[in-house]
Amino acid sequence: MIEIKKLTKQADNKLILRGIDLSITQGETVAILGQNGAGKSTLLKVLATLIKPTSGLVKINGLDLKKDHIEVKKMFGYLPHSSLLYDHNTPLENLVFFGNLYGVKDVENRARKLVNDVGLSFFINEPVKNFSRGMIQRIAIARAIIHEPKIMLLDEPHTGLDQGAITILNNVVLSMKEKGCTTLMVTHDFKQAAAICDRIIIVKNGKIADDFKINSQSLSLVSEKYQVLVEGGS
Amino acid sequence: MLRAALTIAKKDIYSELRTKQVLGTMIIFAGLVILVLSFAFDPANNTTKAVIPGAVWIIIVFSGILGLNRSLVSEQRNETMHGLMVAPMDASSIYLGKFMANFSMILIVEIVSIPFLFLLFDFKITGSILYFILVLFVGSFGFIAIGTFLAALASNSKSSEMLLPLLLFPMTSPVLIGVTQATKIILTNMEKLSTALSWMQLVAAYDVIFFVLCFLLIEYVLEV
Amino acid sequence: MSMNLEREKAPLPIVDLAPVKSSMLTKILYGGMVVSMLAAFYFIFMYAEVEKTMGAVQKIFYMHVPSAWVAFLAFFVTFVFSILFLIKRKRVYDTYAYVSAEIGVVFTAIVLTTGPIWAKSSWNTWWAWEPRLTTTLILFFLFMAYLMVRQMDGVWDKKARLAAVFGIIGFADVPIVFFAIRWWQSKFHPIVFGDGPSQEGGGIAPSMLVALLVTIAAFTFLYAYILHKGVSFENMKIKVGHYKEKLREKLEN
Ligand SMILES: Nc1ncnc2c1ncn2[C@@H]1O[C@H](COP(=O)(O)OP(=O)(O)O)[C@@H](O)[C@H]1O
Ligand SMILES: [Mg+2]
């Protein structure tokens, strides 16, 4: 589904990504771990077509990231650090706006349903600027999946969420997975990574340091490997 | 493409109509410009009438630049611009949507402030109102088309509100020369209408050339 | 810990610091510039006759016109390299565009200072809203704006991309600016300026024309030489940046 070959990205003189080779099949839920500044967000941005890679090849379902960018963009649901929401608008307006951009049919009902799903139906007509961080994140998640994407790119979706919100998020990921959705998730939360992901990628210094599959809930394996690779010295 | 652009324009105009932040600022600013003009040029003096056609464009340019800057800087909050860029459309759709929103906004400012200017300076149009509207349309189109583009370019800078005028004024000087000349003729001296028409043709040609150029190049401006 | 230090001592990079050879091109440009400059001085001060009404002040004309030529040439070069950069995304194209714009600013500034001197002695006014002079003024502002875009903070390729875009539309703007200004002004000074391609062309003596052409050639060489030097200088700066970054990485890991 996602084919990445020899992907590099250079900013000024600094190599942020130095040769990523990665292949992800449909339906996988992949957690991307790594220290701050390892290049995880950059990798997601390249995939989301926000950043042009310096060199290398990315194919999504055989489609070229640049040439068929409209088709490719339709498949992605992207959730970066920032919420991508308009502060002055209500959750409903935000979702309807982005839904319209993606050409979602019957967008208003879909938006209402999503707001319900993330548990904010009481606030559906409040401007987003009055929301707390956790509430904003829930709407941001709803925004990312408004068009039922085939691939989700989530950048640290767990940060700032309370237990209830984490459960909602995990349920969203799992239910999307049932529909055959592929997920790439950058996270620092090993527990959540182990709970919902079936493959772990550890990025270090712009390269993939490890790539392994895990069975359900093997949290200790993840932290062990991470310790060895990242914190245990070079 | 047009559908996405319309969605963006509608979003901008709709949220503007609710908050009235930018539009209100632009109109108040236009009023202040008129006030300053009345200090600089005595409204009771008859020779002042000669500067009114120019004053029309001073108002449009200065209040327009406020709105232009805002329309793209406002997309930086929560990085909503990235949200637009990952949506399935070309960069030119974003440009077109922003252009339409800004253009409608400047038209509203013109509708409110120009009669006000004429009223306060007791200016009687001896020319043709129809042609006047046409020249306003053609001139604002060019100014906003290139202005939206350069605002997108300048929004990458931390001090975009300072950078934008420096980029915009030299670039739009042909439009400004053309429309001030045409406006002067149309408002006061209809005998030379043919000259005014050729000025408008020049501005229209500029509009077309730069609209197309901006359309082609916006993709390079809206890369991260 | 001590083990680590031991291990990291060895591979400090032996940087290839071969002295930058002065290439053939540099020599040719340098020679051409020196020779043509000397020739220009000879033609300006010895060969060309002194203008009757204006006297020696007229000599400033040999500074004014070639500077204007170089300024427009510089902007054209910026335009071409901006397009090349957007297509190929190679850093050297951007460097050429940038250095050329910097040179252009200097030469437009020369035009804008010599112009009023000329105007004062010829038309007894410091500034004439004359099409070519006014276009140069706007060109100066466009160049300045271009350099302002370069001053933005961010990574180089972003600045280069935005500057290239601005360079392209700025250059596309210049002919329209010139046309608009000429049209605007022709109503007020139709006789003095006419609409021929060169106002000086009418009454210029042959010896003056020769001197002018030689000076233009000299200035073109000067421009090419400065451009070449400036680009090698920028390239060196970029290289130093690379080495610094490499060294920093080595020290970090
Ligand atoms: N626009 C940029 N310009 C320069 N350096 C950048 C830019 N974006 C990211 N970086 C650098 O790239 C590295 C990786 O960043 P990022 O992908 O955000 O890391 P992560 O998400 O893994 O914490 C960091 O060292 C950061 O400083
Ligand atoms: Mg990150």
Automatic annotation (TrEMBL), chain A:
InterPro entries recorded: AAA+_ATPase (IPR003593), ABC_transporter-like_ATP-bd (IPR003439), ABC_transporter_ATP-binding (IPR050763), P-loop_NTPase (IPR027417)
Domain ABC transporter: 2-230
Keywords from the named record: ATP-binding, Nucleotide-binding, Transport
Record bears the keyword NAD: no
Gene3D superfamilies: P-loop containing nucleotide triphosphate hydrolases
Pfam families: ABC_tran
CDD domains per UniProt: ABC_DR_subfamily_A
GO MF entry, a single one: ATP hydrolysis activity
Family according to the record: Belongs to the ABC transporter superfamily.
Name of the protein described by the UniProt record: Heme exporter protein A
Organism of origin: Neobacillus niacini
From TrEMBL, chain B:
Keyword terms: Cell inner membrane, Cell membrane, Cytochrome c-type biogenesis, Membrane, Transmembrane, Transmembrane helix, Transport
Main location group: membrane
Localization annotation: Cell inner membrane
Protein's name in the database: Heme exporter protein B
Residue ranges crossing the lipid bilayer per the database entry: 21-41, 47-68, 99-123, 129-154, 166-187, 199-222
Example of a GO MF term: heme transmembrane transporter activity
Functional summary from the UniProt entry: Required for the export of heme to the periplasm for the biogenesis of c-type cytochromes.
Ranges in a coiled coil: none
GO cellular component terms given for this protein: plasma membrane
Family: Belongs to the CcmB/CycW/HelB family.
Record membrane topology: Multi-pass membrane protein
Pfam family, one: CcmB
Superkingdom per UniProt: Bacteria
InterPro entries from the UniProt entry: Cyt_c_biogenesis_CcmB, Cyt_c_CcmB_bac
Gene Ontology process terms (BP): cytochrome c biosynthetic process; cytochrome complex assembly
Automatic annotation (TrEMBL), chain C:
InterPro entries: Cyt_c_assembly, Cyt_c_biogenesis_CcmC, Cyt_c_biogenesis_CcsA/CcmC
Gene Ontology molecular-function annotations: heme binding; heme transmembrane transporter activity
GO biological process, one term: cytochrome complex assembly
Regions that span the bilayer: 28-48, 68-87, 99-119, 131-149, 161-184, 204-227
Main location: membrane
Stretches assigned to the Cytochrome c assembly protein domain: 33-189
Keyword vocabulary terms for this entry: Cytochrome c-type biogenesis, Membrane, Transmembrane, Transmembrane helix
Protein name: Heme exporter protein C
Family as reported in the entry's similarity comment: Belongs to the CcmC/CycZ/HelC family.
Recorded superkingdom: Bacteria
PANTHER family: CYTOCHROME B_B6 PROTEIN-RELATED, HEME EXPORTER PROTEIN C
GO cellular component: plasma membrane
Membrane topology according to the record: Multi-pass membrane protein
Localization, UniProt: Membrane
